[in-house]
Amino acid sequence: MAKQALTLTALNVTEDPPQPAGESYGLMINPAEFSHSRSICYNTRKTLGQTSNPARFSAMNPDQISFSVVFDGTGVIPSRPGQVNDVAAQIDAMCRVIYDYSSADHEPNHLRVAWGKLSFDCRLTSFDTTYTLFKSSGAPLRARVELALTGFATPQDAALEANPSSPDLSHSVLVVDGDTLPLLCLRIYGDARYYPEVAAFNGLSGFRRLQPGQRLHFPPLA
């Protein structure tokens, strides 16, 4: 089986759910380590005369992920198809997807990080580069980039998550490799036969080939 590269893809967030915008970058070398952080925000503001801190719930913070990207121009590690064997050019190619300012949107791209079963919609928060090996001319032969990204949700998904009584909250599913619509219906409704209604609800012309990273909404049963 071919080794799957971690891929960073620009997203079009004017659609619901967000769809790939056509620009992506697959890493030459997959990360050796990957961090995924979750945190909760509490209101700990003290009042006059308070003897304890109740730490009242305030909000769920966006998930954070971080990992290192290694770029190699020595030729020891083969380039992926379409990639150049030049460290500076490799970093520039990734920057065009994840960092550069988009004149159309007036901001950097929204992104999707996909690797194995991971599909994480996010924004870049930091991009730190360390050059570790050089040619005699001073051109870099190897570099390490530390990436940190914060998750985001569309206004529609945020509204669902803010309403814990909504039956849609537990029926918003991010498709992973191997999922089928009948299997998801069986998992959610206990009956695989609801797949035609779910396909129509999501505007799917076909249901046999779901795309990993695709978000599907499963309405409450009538």
Can you tell me about this structure?
The chain has 222 residues and is α+β, with helices and mostly antiparallel strands. Helices cover 16% and strands 36% of the residues. The chain contains four helices and 13 strands. The protein has helices spanning 87-98, 155-162, 181-189, 195-201, and strands at 7-12, 19-26, 34-37, 40-43, 56-60, 64-72, 101-102, 107-108, 110-115, 118-134, 140-151, 172-174, 215-217. It is globular, with a radius of gyration of 21 Å. The model is unreliable at 164-170 (pLDDT under 50).
Indicate the structural class: alpha+beta
Question: How many strand segments?
Answer: 13
Helix content: 10-25%
Measured by DSSP, the beta-strand proportion falls in 35-45%
In terms of per-residue confidence, which ranges show pLDDT below 50 for 5 or more consecutive residues? 164-170
Number of domains: 2
Radius of gyration: 21 Å
What is the terminal separation in angstroms?
Answer: 43 Å
How confident overall, as mean pLDDT? 84
Largest sheet: 7 strands, antiparallel
Q: Total helix count? A: 4
Order of strands, main sheet, comes to 2-1-9-10-11-6-3
From the spread of the alpha carbons, the general shape counts as globular
The H-and-E topology, N to C, reads as EEEEEEHEEEEEHEHHE
